[in-house]
Amino acid sequence: MQFSEHWLRTLCNPPISTAELSHRLTMAGLEVEEYQPIAPPFTGVVVAEVVSVDRHPNADRLSLCQVDDGSGHLLSIVCGAPNVAPGMKVPCARIGAQLPGETAEQPFVIKLAKMRGVESHGMLCSARELGLSSDHAGLLELNAAYAVGVDLREALSLNDNRFVIKLTPNRADCLSVLGVAREVAALTGTSLHSPDVTPANVATDANFPVRISHPDACPRFTSRVIRGVNAAAATPDWMRQRLERAGQRCISALV
Which positions ≥6 away from 206 have C-beta within 8 Å? Predict the structure, then answer.
């Protein structure tokens, strides 16, 4: 089972380090097989908005972008991504930013560069360049609601760890993040903040017929009819992050 440490700490946040949390869980019988950072270390990358896109005067496959990075003046950045467009929010590595390199000891440092005779004051980033995924087909497009100038690690909650625990068959009570949080609360004496769940009102008399063929093996089975689901609705970013860090794929509201 895997989950986000940040998600766990929204439910129970003991004043102990990640390493100590891992040790406490393992000693309690919830063996932590590993915990790893969600994202590799990088600095100097902020949420930015592409204000305008023009063709590079000396290269057909490059664009000259004016970018608002929240500093108070627009940055002129040369970009080769095919999906760059005015109005989109993207990660911007400012001059001096340190991106993941071949090793942790040798980060890739962003410097003032001249590309085909035009100065580029920073770099617009793909997910691969930030070490977030292998996708390098284009820029990482961010949620339009993100504020310009905010540190990307803060905007995407990247200062997080993924825990992987090995559960024994007798600990089915910990087959959920809330269950693990309840265990952490018991181990540390820290308050548990259970999510506030409001039951949905029943608005239809429709029912789905269920026949139990082997009541000895299934003494109880429940079902509910739900209508009016918008299958095209987008999953909120916070929910997508939590599910993905728990090993789930966000495909649609129905799935």
Answer: 225, 227
Each residue of 58-67: pLDDT tens digit?
A: 888 899 999 9
Helix-helix angle 18-27:177-188, to 10 degrees: 90
Low-confidence ranges of the chain (pLDDT < 50): none
CA of 80: how far to CAs of 83, 112, 217, in Å? 9, 16, 60
Burial level of 144, CB count in 10 A (0-12/13-18/19+)?
exposed
pLDDT for residue 107:
87
What's the pLDDT at 104?
62
Q: Are 90 and 139 in contact (CB under 8 A)?
A: yes
Tally of CB atoms within 10 A around 29: 14
Residue 229: the pLDDT is: 86
Q: Tokens 């911007």: give the residue.
A: 92
Question: Residue 235 is encoded by which pair of tokens?
Answer: 């999953």
pLDDT of residue 238: 87
For 173-186, the pLDDT digits (tens) are 999 999 999 999 99
Q: What is the DSSP letter of 151?
A: B
CA nearest 150: which of 57, 69, 242, 87? 69
Per-residue tokens: 206? 């429709």
Whether residue 106 contacts residue 87, with contact meaning beta carbons closer than 8 Å, is answered with no
Tokens encoding 158: 């990247």
Contact 31, 2 (CB under 8 A): no
pLDDT value of residue 103: 67
CA gap 193, 185 in Å, rounded: 9
